[in-house]
Amino acid sequence: MFNKTRLNIVFTVVFSLLILMAVTLGTIYISNRIALQRDNEEMLKTYVQRYTLDEQPGEDGEKPDGKPDIKPDDRPDGQGGKQGPRDGDPGRNEPRFQLSTFYAVAYSDNGEVIKIYNGNSALQSEESLLQITDPIFKSGKTAGRTGNMTYSVEQRDGYTLVAMIDGTINDSNQSLLFKQMLIIGSAALIILVVISIFTARRIVKPLEENDRRQKRFVSDAGHELKTPIAVISANSELLRRDTGDSEWLDNIDYENGRMSDLVKQLLMLSKAENGDLPKESLDFSKLTSGEVLPFESLAYEKGKQINSDIENGINIKGNTSQLRQLVSILLDNAVSHTTGETVELTLKLQRHSAVLTVTNDAAEINSDQLSHLFERFYRTDESRNESGSHYGLGLSIAKAVVDAHGGHITAAYKDGKAIFTVSVPTEKN
User: Which of 75-84, 150-159, 271-280 shows the lowest per-residue confidence on average (mean pLDDT)?
Assistant: First the structure.
């Protein structure tokens, strides 16, 4: 149980960290990509605004004809002075323009290529550039992205300009940044997993120790109570011989018997929870059939019957005594609490598990009651009003037995029926 608790703590921490890491990296990657794309679009817009067929802006600040480009802060204002740079209109002498590669192709109205500007670079030949721009020109789109290129299409007098900015370097830098963040994040995650394992052990250790003390107390108390119960029983018998039968002695014997049954169940629960009993290969089908027989007689005396459907040859590895208790507890619970006349028991082989199901008619059991059925001393309101040897420990013992055999037990209420299902792994060949 506590191993599962530790695993759940570690899983919760790791899962939360993975979600946080994925959201963080995704947010950084997307926001960075959007910012780079926006920056490229702004530079491309500036490039398109300054493009002319005769003078295309170059990367080195010079025009193709060898004449230096005019900087924004050197434009004459018509009065012999200089005009300052316009807000939002960066000069092409800025580093980000110089480090960016632009391409442009001008098409006539009938689709012929008028002029090609390949960025004075060997990265794109005119042929490869046309292979990119021709589909863009024919698509009729005005802006977008293809591969590593961000493009803009502008209709001008007498021609159509398809301009592009190469984002290969930015994409490579972004991919490198993402990989580095992923490596660092993974290393940090591994460290945090180790820390979470250590922390989970520290958290669960006091709970585990407390549970161990409780089990030891139940076992010790059960053994200590056996002696006074035996003494009370012996004294009651001696008094009965001397004074004869009386109502008071009957009450003493009745309550002493109930106490004896309770101690026996506490000791059974302690043994089942310790899980230290020897296990052997056994025929679970025969064991179940053997436990059904005496309960058929008990059910008959109460005007009820047990219908069993047991598949033969189901073998498991377990403790015979504990498994007999398991089947006995489920049948006793069904026969004692059924509101109908029939109890159904089935044992089937499903994949690699032996599945035992016990079904009986029952008063409504709400979800809150179902969640507490396997707790110690828990009984529904109806069963509290009954007399007998039911102390709310039977289903707790059943769960402890199933857990000790590596299986699981569930309780459900459907269509007026209480359904208890036990699944125990079969013996591996």
Answer: 75-84
pLDDT digits (tens, 9 = 90+) for 113-124: 998 888 766 677
User: From the CA atom positions of the chain, what is the Rg in Å?
Assistant: 42
Which CATH fold would you assign to the domain 101-166?
A: Profilin-like (3.40.1840)
The answer to whether 143 touches 133, Cβ cutoff 8 Å, is no
Residues of the chain with CATH 3.40.1840.10: 101-166
What average pLDDT score do residues 256-279 get? Answer: 75
What is the Cβ-side half-sphere exposure of residue 72, based on CA atoms within 13 angstroms?
13
pLDDT digits (tens, 9 = 90+) for 389-401: 566 778 888 888 8
**Other CB atoms within 10 A of residue 339 CB:** 12
Residue 242, φ and ψ in degrees, nearest 5: -80, -40
Beta bridge partners of 143: 152
pLDDT class of 381 with cuts at 50, 70, 90: low
CA distance 242 to 311: 56
**296-320 burial string, b = 16+ CB within 10 Å, else e?**
beebeeeebebebebeeebbbbbbe
Across 195-207, average pLDDT: 84
Find tokens 């012999």 and name the residue: 80
Q: Where in the chain is the domain with CATH 3.30.565.10?
A: 277-425
- pTM to 2 decimal places: 0.53
Distance between CA atoms of residues 30 and 38, nearest Å: 12
The CATH number, out of the four listed (3.20.20.70, 3.30.565.10, 3.30.450.40, 3.30.1330.60), of the domain defined by the range 277-425? 3.30.565.10
* pLDDT of 267 higher than 60: yes
